[in-house]
Amino acid sequence: MSVGLRERKKQQTREAIIRAGLDLFERDGYQATTVSQIADAAEISRGTLFSYFPSKEDILFHDHEETADEIAAALDSRPPGQSALDAVFTYVLDNLEQIDERARRRRQLVAEDRQLLAAYRARNAAIAEVIALAVADDLGVGFGDVRPQLTAAVMASAFNATEEHRLASHDAQSREEVTARLEVMMKFLRAGLDAIR
Fold this sequence. Notes:
Helices cover about 75% and strands about 0% of the residues. With about 200 residues, it is mainly α. It is globular and about 55 Å long.
C-alpha cells in the first residue's frame, strides 16, 4: 500500500470516528454515549479508535490541538516586525471559513453541559498560552509576567466571542462584516497592549 493511500485511509477512519461521535452525542447525549458505541458506529474496534483519539472528549474537540499547532507555526514564521497580535489576527482571517457545521453542532453540545464547557475553556486556555509566549517575546519579558498572560487571555476571549456570535447568528454574515468586527476588536487589543507596555 502506498504512503498516499495509507494516509487517505487513516484520514477517512479519523473522519468516520468524528462523524459517528457527533451523531451519537447529539442523539443520545455526550455523557450517555460510550466509546464502544462510537467505535461500532464507525465500524472499527475500540483499540483502533483509541489509536486515533485517547478519549471521548478528544473526539468532540478534535481540532483544538491542531489549531494550537497552527497558531504556534504562524507565530514562529511571522515576518520580522510583525507583532504576535497581528500574526494571530492574520491566522484568524485566513481561517474564517473553517467555522463550519461541525463547530455549530459542538457549540450546542457544549452549551448544554457544564463539564464540556469547562473542558472547552481549558482547551482554549492552552491556545492562549501559545499566544502568551509570543507576546512575552514581543515585550521582552518572561512568561510569568502578567502582561502577556492578560493580553493572550483577552485576545482568546475576544476571538471566542466573535466565533460564538457567528455561530449563533441565524443570518449569513459576509467575510467583510466579520473582518470589520475583528478589526474593531484588534484596535481595542492593540490599544490595551500599548497601555500596559
